[in-house]
Amino acid sequence: MSENPFDKIPPYKIVDGFLGEALICGLLDHARAEEANFSPTKVGKAEGILDPGIRVSKVHRDFGELRDELKASFEKMMPKAIEELRIPPFDLAHCEIELVAHNDGAFYKRHIDTRTGVPDTKSQRALTGVLYFHSQPKQFSGGQFRLFSLNSQNFVDIEPQSDRLVLFPSWAPHEVMPISCPSGKFEHSRFAINCWYRRPNPHKESS
Hints:
Blueprint (H helix, E strand, L loop, with lengths): L12 E4 L4 H13 L5 E2 L14 E2 L1 E3 L6 H19 L8 E9 L4 E5 L11 E11 L7 E2 L2 E4 L6 E4 L5 E6 L4 E3 L2 E2 L9 E11 L7
Antiparallel strand pairs: 1-11, 2-4, 3-6, 4-5, 5-14, 6-12, 7-11, 7-14, 8-13, 9-10, 9-12
């Protein structure tokens, strides 16, 4: 009997040491300096809503002088990821990136990335990359990235190690497991950069 495709874990790729120590240190410094500019994350499309029963974290979208280097690093990874994950090739419309901080009690319930974020009639999310980083020594526990099969019967947990990139199709269901950070200090958070590789929308409205 052939395996039920809905039982299978979606394809994923792990890249350790993705950015290197210097850029990771720069990201930590940037996050600390921008603490006051992080805002509570929302769920849903368009303006979204605050729903602490689904998601608790803080987000910031200004990477300052680091933006160009970060986007170049993510874009360079795209062809190999598409090939290894067997995602149908696509032209990159643009990379959408954000910085998220998870502190004590933070989490994000099971979801898929194609149903979140601001609507864009010109492009759609096809490939997701999540890059983790944190202060040393690590001051939190939990926060594993959980990737589910389509029927949610099976899953795999991936540890959020610093400078680890996880890539997977944006349609794949996933979750951020609860975080414990006893100090409660922002600088001790589980930080992550979410990157969405967007492909042109073949059904975009004509201008």
